[in-house]
Amino acid sequence: GFAGSKANEWIPIRPGTDAALANSMLHVLLNELGIYDGEFLKHKTNAPYLVGAEGCYLRDAATNEPLVLDAADGMVKTHNDPGLSDPAITGGPCNVQGKTGRPAFELLREHVAKYAPEKTESITTIPAATVRRIAREFGEAARIGETITIDGVELPFRPVCVDWAKGTQGHKHGFHNCWPLKLLNIVVGSVNVPGGI
Q1: 148-196 pLDDT per residue, tens
Q2: How far apart are CA 27 and CA 20, in angstroms?
Q3: What is the dihedral of CA 93, 97, 99, 100, to 10 degrees?
Q4: Strand pairing report for 75-78 and 67-70
Q5: Taking the model in full, what pTM does it have?
Q6: How many Å apart are CA 78 and CA 67, to the nearest integer?
Q7: Are 122 and 44 in contact (CB under 8 A)?
Q8: Element (H, E) at 44
Q9: pLDDT tens per residue across span 15-51
Q10: Which of 28, 89, 153, 170 is most open to solvent, judged by the fewest CB atoms within 10 Å of its CB?
């Protein structure tokens, strides 16, 4: 349509396969290239929350708040503990109150590993090399770590975003295609900041 006519490149996709493309791009970013905004994920998302074997957050017995591992001192703390300085988003399992937990971010990385571009090529019709290229371009365009000062306030600068409309969500259960698209913006910290969505 009109938006496509303004694009530098059109990459046709089999309708309804947006989630496979996004999960494949997430795999490339997180598992192959290691491109993500760790500080944003640690402090603005649930990426460090410890998830138990049953798939639920591990919670503090007294407050019911989700637990995280503080990489600074190796102690398990609530996500809102004022002494929390470096929430771990990567790393192996840890034992908490007799249960084993892993950071939610590790579970995401494990999930998207199922979507290597070679596998999603047959789903989306987009060549694996193209998926890898656009994932790399997306990650590089995010300029992770850069800031911009607006009206004297220094803010993260992430001039990249994935946006979508009716084509992605306009069919039965179509909105579920949107979750991995949202995650592309989230993992590079391109949410509610200049340049982002």
Answers
A1: 999 999 999 999 999 887 666 677 777 778 889 999 999 999 999 999 9
A2: 10
A3: 0
A4: antiparallel
A5: 0.93
A6: 4
A7: no
A8: helix 38-44
A9: 889 999 999 999 999 999 999 999 999 999 999 999 9
A10: 153
